[in-house]
Protein backbone atom coordinates (compact mmCIF):
# COMPACT_ATOMS: atom_id res chain seq x y z
CA UNK A 1 0.00 0.00 0.00
CA UNK A 2 1.45 3.30 -1.05
CA UNK A 3 1.02 6.92 -0.19
CA UNK A 4 2.59 9.65 -2.22
CA UNK A 5 3.22 13.35 -2.39
CA UNK A 6 3.21 14.60 -5.95
CA UNK A 7 4.62 17.98 -6.98
CA UNK A 8 5.64 19.41 -10.32
CA UNK A 9 8.93 21.10 -9.36
CA UNK A 10 12.18 19.97 -7.75
CA UNK A 11 11.97 22.88 -5.30
CA UNK A 12 8.54 21.77 -4.08
CA UNK A 13 9.81 18.18 -3.77
CA UNK A 14 12.80 19.36 -1.72
CA UNK A 15 10.46 21.37 0.51
CA UNK A 16 8.21 18.34 1.10
CA UNK A 17 11.23 16.13 1.85
CA UNK A 18 12.58 18.71 4.32
CA UNK A 19 9.21 18.78 6.10
CA UNK A 20 9.28 14.98 6.40
CA UNK A 21 12.89 15.00 7.65
CA UNK A 22 11.93 17.54 10.32
CA UNK A 23 9.41 15.03 11.68
CA UNK A 24 6.15 16.11 10.08
CA UNK A 25 3.69 13.30 9.44
CA UNK A 26 3.63 12.09 5.83
CA UNK A 27 -0.18 12.37 5.60
CA UNK A 28 -0.13 15.95 6.88
CA UNK A 29 2.58 16.97 4.39
CA UNK A 30 0.66 15.24 1.59
CA UNK A 31 -2.53 17.11 2.48
CA UNK A 32 -0.68 20.42 2.57
CA UNK A 33 1.72 20.15 -0.37
CA UNK A 34 0.69 17.40 -2.79
CA UNK A 35 -0.64 18.55 -6.14
CA UNK A 36 -2.51 15.25 -6.58
CA UNK A 37 -5.78 16.61 -5.25
CA UNK A 38 -7.56 13.26 -5.11
CA UNK A 39 -4.98 11.42 -3.01
CA UNK A 40 -3.95 14.46 -0.99
CA UNK A 41 -7.42 14.51 0.59
CA UNK A 42 -6.63 11.01 1.90
CA UNK A 43 -3.20 11.96 3.21
CA UNK A 44 -1.58 10.78 -0.01
CA UNK A 45 -3.02 7.25 0.23
CA UNK A 46 -3.11 5.48 -3.14
CA UNK A 47 -4.26 2.10 -1.85
CA UNK A 48 -2.69 -1.23 -2.75
CA UNK A 49 -0.69 -1.46 -5.95
CA UNK A 50 0.98 -4.26 -7.81
CA UNK A 51 4.44 -3.25 -9.01
CA UNK A 52 3.15 -4.05 -12.52
CA UNK A 53 0.72 -1.13 -12.20
CA UNK A 54 3.28 1.47 -11.17
CA UNK A 55 5.64 3.67 -13.11
CA UNK A 56 8.84 1.56 -13.27
CA UNK A 57 10.91 4.21 -11.46
CA UNK A 58 8.40 4.31 -8.59
CA UNK A 59 8.07 0.52 -8.48
CA UNK A 60 11.84 0.10 -8.21
CA UNK A 61 12.06 2.44 -5.23
CA UNK A 62 8.90 1.08 -3.57
CA UNK A 63 10.26 -2.46 -3.74
CA UNK A 64 13.32 -1.40 -1.72
CA UNK A 65 11.44 0.55 0.96
CA UNK A 66 10.38 -1.13 4.17
CA UNK A 67 6.87 -0.62 5.52
CA UNK A 68 6.67 2.78 7.20
CA UNK A 69 9.61 4.33 5.35
CA UNK A 70 9.52 6.98 2.66
CA UNK A 71 11.67 7.95 -0.30
CA UNK A 72 13.50 11.02 -1.45
CA UNK A 73 12.02 12.75 -4.51
CA UNK A 74 11.65 10.47 -7.54
CA UNK A 75 11.40 12.16 -10.92
CA UNK A 76 8.80 10.87 -13.38
CA UNK A 77 7.40 12.17 -16.64
CA UNK A 78 4.78 14.08 -14.63
CA UNK A 79 6.91 15.69 -11.94
CA UNK A 80 8.30 14.49 -8.61
CA UNK A 81 6.96 11.89 -6.20
CA UNK A 82 7.84 11.12 -2.62
CA UNK A 83 6.40 7.73 -1.76
CA UNK A 84 5.78 5.92 1.50
CA UNK A 85 5.07 2.21 1.82
CA UNK A 86 2.30 1.89 4.41
CA UNK A 87 1.55 -1.83 4.06
CA UNK A 88 2.66 -4.76 1.96
CA UNK A 89 0.88 -7.95 0.96
CA UNK A 90 2.45 -10.90 -0.77
CA UNK A 91 0.93 -12.08 -4.03
CA UNK A 92 -1.77 -14.60 -3.37
CA UNK A 93 -2.56 -13.21 0.06
CA UNK A 94 -5.76 -14.69 1.40
CA UNK A 95 -8.53 -12.14 1.71
CA UNK A 96 -11.56 -12.31 3.97
CA UNK A 97 -14.54 -14.07 2.43
CA UNK A 98 -16.82 -11.05 2.80
CA UNK A 99 -14.40 -8.99 0.70
CA UNK A 100 -14.50 -11.46 -2.19
CA UNK A 101 -18.02 -12.85 -1.82
CA UNK A 102 -19.54 -10.69 -4.57
CA UNK A 103 -16.66 -11.41 -6.98
CA UNK A 104 -17.06 -15.15 -6.43
CA UNK A 105 -20.82 -14.90 -6.90
CA UNK A 106 -20.40 -12.96 -10.15
CA UNK A 107 -17.81 -15.41 -11.50
CA UNK A 108 -19.98 -18.42 -10.68
CA UNK A 109 -23.06 -16.76 -12.16
CA UNK A 110 -21.20 -15.90 -15.37
CA UNK A 111 -19.92 -19.49 -15.64
CA UNK A 112 -23.41 -20.90 -15.09
CA UNK A 113 -24.89 -18.56 -17.71
CA UNK A 114 -22.16 -19.52 -20.19
CA UNK A 115 -22.84 -23.25 -19.67
CA UNK A 116 -26.61 -22.76 -20.00
CA UNK A 117 -26.16 -20.73 -23.18
CA UNK A 118 -23.90 -23.41 -24.68
CA UNK A 119 -26.50 -26.09 -23.83
CA UNK A 120 -29.30 -24.00 -25.35
CA UNK A 121 -27.31 -23.40 -28.53
CA UNK A 122 -26.52 -27.12 -28.79
CA UNK A 123 -30.20 -28.01 -28.37
CA UNK A 124 -31.27 -25.43 -30.95
CA UNK A 125 -28.65 -26.65 -33.44
CA UNK A 126 -29.80 -30.25 -32.92
CA UNK A 127 -33.45 -29.29 -33.58
CA UNK A 128 -32.73 -26.98 -36.50
CA UNK A 129 -31.13 -27.18 -39.87
CA UNK A 130 -28.24 -24.80 -39.53
CA UNK A 131 -26.56 -23.62 -42.70
CA UNK A 132 -23.35 -21.73 -42.25
CA UNK A 133 -22.13 -19.42 -44.99
CA UNK A 134 -18.69 -18.05 -45.54
CA UNK A 135 -18.98 -14.21 -45.46
CA UNK A 136 -17.00 -14.13 -48.73
CA UNK A 137 -19.84 -16.00 -50.47
CA UNK A 138 -22.42 -13.30 -49.70
CA UNK A 139 -23.43 -10.84 -52.45
CA UNK A 140 -21.51 -7.58 -52.25
CA UNK A 141 -24.44 -5.36 -53.24
CA UNK A 142 -27.87 -5.18 -51.68
CA UNK A 143 -30.85 -5.92 -53.97
CA UNK A 144 -32.46 -2.90 -55.56
CA UNK A 145 -35.98 -1.86 -54.66
CA UNK A 146 -38.75 -3.72 -56.45
CA UNK A 147 -36.83 -6.93 -56.97
List the helices and strands and how they pair.
Elements: E1 2-7, H1 10-21, H2 26-33, H3 37-40, E2 45-47, H4 56-64, E3 74-75, E4 80-85, H5 97-127
Antiparallel strand pairs: 1-2, 1-4, 3-4
Helix pairs in contact: 1-2
In a few lines, what is going on in this structure?
The protein contains five helices and four strands; from the N terminus they run βαααβαββα. The chain has 147 residues and is an alpha+beta fold.
Would you give an account of this structure?
44% of the residues lie in helices and 12% in strands. It is an alpha+beta fold and 147 residues long. It has a four-stranded antiparallel beta sheet, sandwiched between helices. A hairpin with a 4-residue loop joins β3 (74-75) and β4 (80-85). α1 runs antiparallel to α2 (26-33). The protein is elongated. It starts with a strand and ends in a 20-residue tail after the last helix. 16% of the residues are buried. The mean pLDDT is 87. It catalyses: [protein]-peptidylproline (omega=180) = [protein]-peptidylproline (omega=0). Residues 1-87 form the PpiC domain. GO terms for molecular function: peptidyl-prolyl cis-trans isomerase activity. InterPro entries: PPIase_dom_sf (IPR046357), PPIase_PpiC (IPR000297), PPIase_PpiC_CS (IPR023058), PrsA_foldase (IPR050245).
Amino acid sequence: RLSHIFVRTKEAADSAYAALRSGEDFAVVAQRLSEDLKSSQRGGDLGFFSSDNLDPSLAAVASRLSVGSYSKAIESGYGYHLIKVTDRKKKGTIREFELVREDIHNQLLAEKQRRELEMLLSELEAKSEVVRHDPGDLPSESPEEGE
